[in-house]
Give the backbone structure.
Amino acid sequence: MSGGGGSGARSGDGSGGGRRFGDGGPGGGSGARRGSGPGSGASDGGASDGGSDGASGARIHVVRFAPAKLNLTLAVTGKRDDGYHSLHSIMVPLSLGDALTVAATPAGATRDSLQVSGLVLPAKSDNLVLRAIIATRAAVAPAWPGAPAFPPALAARLAKRIPVAAGLGGGSSDAAAAIRAALAAWGAALDPEATAAVAASLGSDVPFFLAGTAALVTGRGESVEPLPEIGGEPPAVLLVTPQLPLSTAAVFKAYADGAREPEAGLARNTSERLAAEIRAGTTSAALLARAEELASANDLRQAAASLVPGLRTFVTALERLLDRPVCQSGSGPTMWSLYASLAEARKAVRFVRLAAVNGTLPLIGTGEPFVAATTIAGRPTSPLVQPADGSEGAIRPRSVHNWVEIDDQGPGGTSDGQMESKGDKSQ
Ligand code: ATP
């Protein structure tokens, strides 16, 4: 999957609010607008004033929450002329997520940098956070005062909590958060179309994360129709991710090579029906009642299983253990089940961890699976922007369960690495 033209993409205002800096007027044809906040003094493209809070002189740290996602449904509806598959997928953000902090670099710094903590992430300069900052800079540049100089370099810190290459969309979510954070740190703004174009250029799931709400996603992922919130207590979700990264491209290739669901059209029918129900206003209880249907509403299950020896056995054992249907998110290998309450989902976490240790649940990949309880998230709350005071910015989506539950030393270990992009030598 990779982003397309952005025809139906909507950039939601979910991460708007909070302290705002980007109030500049409309820019030229580029879709860029220039604010008068942090970074505005760096009109020569230098970083000396970038990110400085005028009143206190402290550097502004922009903090963004980057949620994981679930595909409640994922139907592959055809093959496009550009070689990509078209999809019909209902996607929801979760309360589990990464935290991204971005600040203008101290004077003299000429490169964007990224420091990662938490789960291990390949230390590559093509990390989506850096790519998103570079793409956003390019979009903002035409309206940047002092052009051809560019907006100043940024220092990013990513607390990685979402398992990588797991079907949970972590990289795409980080990219969407980085677009928002970079604009806030520069005091710049892009119109929705320009923002959507940047998002779509970074990956197929990025427009969804930019919208920030439950959505029906079609096309290659670029068409995002926000859906109403599910009523009642937010549905709780148990996530079980085998320690085994799975490439989305490889799963789609397996699908194209014939690893298909036995009943063609089943996922599509369920996806269309569920989309209609959510549009009309549905509840958590009604969603839970559909658990059996949702378990067979992912067209990539066979394709993922064809690439992961033991995945079918793992899912069967998990279903037996939980005594409820188990669904796959995206291209896998993350499996999930719905629960009526977070307390029940947490109980299931303990049960699954125990089963992984005592052998009731067969292990696949490199060790015990990542197991977590979370909820389907509601509309995002205000992001936080705060002066640096040496402490990590507080993260306050409606509820962030992984923040307290997941041990940094847990599955996946830890990584702390300094990465630099090479794409912004213009300072
Ligand atoms: P999707 O379901 O959106 O296709 P995924 O959830 O299966 O993706 P990601 O965790 O987004 O997978 O990672 C996909 C690839 O992107 C990985 O191979 C990883 O190395 C790369 N990547 C680049 N930047 C990031 C990032 N910030 N977080 C996670 N992965 C990243």
In short: The chain has two domains: 32-228+390-413, 236-375.
